[in-house]
Structures are given as C-alpha cells and as structure tokens.
Prior knowledge:
Blueprint: H1 11-23, H2 26-39, H3 43-59
Amino acid sequence: GKIGYVVEPDSEKIADVLVDFYENNRMAEFEANVVDEKKKFSWSNMVNSFLYLYKTMKSTK
Length: 61
C-alpha cells in the first residue's frame, strides 16, 4: 500500500505484512506518503470538490 496495508483478518497475512513493514523499513515511506495524501483532504480541495459537484448538479437540471 501507499500509506499502509489492507489485509484480511487472518493471523498469517497480518504476520506477513508486519514482517514486510519491518524488513523493508516501510515507516519512512508511509510517513512521506501520508503527507501527500493529507493534501487531498485540505479545506481548499474539499471546497473545490463541493463547488464542482454543485455546478455539475445545477447544469443537469
């Protein structure tokens, strides 16, 4: 994953991703990606998304 793992609730699969996380030092990679992902949810981006949705809905009436 880009900012973490999504795994089935299976102990072997969870163990596999934990091993991957520590053996491949994923902490720095995930932390850097979190910074980028958080930008998608800024107030500015949210307002722009709502305005786009509003304009799109208004034009279809």
